[in-house]
Specification:
7-stranded mixed beta sheet; alpha/beta; 13 helices
Length: 315
């Protein structure tokens, strides 16, 4: 049986930024969001079993798929965990320093198309949206139990959806009659909540689904701290590469990189700067990188991707 693997975004750019040509048996790289192992495969192919690669993913199915894809490489360590536990993961493998790390913050094609967990609004699936199938809270739980103001807040803040209030009200009306258990019904509710003349160019449910997915998986929780911790583990000259897919993530990455570079990120009226006085990172992407037209043609889902890269220059 042929397995259709997720197409890694910015594959060639990341391989170039990681300085793999200078690798040796002592170098250690981390793929903090392994998914189907696309970026890991690229790194491993280049290293030819030199050094080590630590791969992390909270989706047990992703770990299984990646192991199958990467079975010919002997220098890979697989970890089923959340990248938020990066420090404990590295310490458990007696690793104090690394030479490169990747964060691909998106949802994989497998999760969208084949997992059956309700990430996609194109299929009728259970309202799950858990990246880690062993996690407790699902999108169904949020939709059917949260009060209207909290639902509205989640959709507004995490989806940047201006019709969040109307969508939340319609959800409440529907669930009084019957529980909302599948994606098809939720899409129908969203469609009737937004006047047709205000439908966006992308699918009308995109922002609400994004918001629920972020809330279920707590995707923005501690992202800033994890990036700072990852930088602290880098050797001098080591690189950190972060791919984000929406403005909420990208703003956190941009702000954190600037702070690590020693820039002031205080609000304009702050009387005294409380920012980081040390320059631990040099930003290598003065402007955020976006996919080429060729990459978007080959992989339309890459169109919203943004890549930022930094190099460790001090502690």
């Amino acid at each position: 049986m042929t397995i259709n693997y997720h197409i890694p975004i910015f594959r060639e750019e990341i391989l170039a930024f990681l300085n793999l040509e200078n690798s040796n048996d002592k170098k250690i790289y981390v793929d903090a969001t392994m998914g189907d192992g696309g970026h890991t495969y690229g790194i491993a192919s280049y290293l030819k079993n030199k050094g080590r690669i630590i791969t992390i993913d909270k989706d047990s199915e992703a770990v299984k798929r990646a192991k199958l894809r990467l079975k010919n490489f002997s220098n890979i360590i697989y970890v089923h965990d959340n990248y938020e536990n990066l420090e404990n993961i590295l310490k458990s493998h007696n690793i104090s320093k690394i030479d490169g790390i990747i964060f691909d913050l998106g949802v994989s094609s497998f999760q969208l198309d084949s997992s059956g967990r309700g990430f996609s609004f194109s299929n009728c699936e259970p309202l799950d949206m858990r990246m880690n199938p062993e996690a407790y809270i699902t999108a169904r739980d949020l939709i059917n139990t949260l009060p209207e103001d909290e639902l509205s807040r989640i959709i507004r803040e995490f989806g940047e959806e201006k019709w969040s209030g109307k969508i939340a009200r319609e959800i409440i009306k529907e669930r009084i009659k019957n529980p909302i258990n599948d994606t098809a019904l939720l899409v129908e509710i969203i469609k009737r909540s937004i006047p047709r003349k205000f439908y966006p160019k992308h699918h009308v449910a995109t922002k609400t689904f994004q918001a629920l997915r972020i809330a279920v998986n707590q995707e923005l929780v501690d992202l800033e701290n994890v990036l700072i911790k990852a930088c602290s583990f880098l050797n001098i000259g080591g690189r950190i590469c972060v791919i984000s897919f929406h403005s909420l993530e990208d703003r956190i990455v941009k702000k954190t990189f600037r702070w690590l570079q020693g820039e002031c990120i205080c609000p304009p009226r702050m009387p005294v700067c409380g920012c980081n006085p040390n320059k631990a990172l040099k930003i290598l992407t003065s402007k955020v990188l976006i996919p080429s037209e060729k990459e978007i043609d080959e992989n339309p889902r890459s169109r919203s991707a943004r890549l930022r890269v930094g190099e460790k220059i001090g502690d």
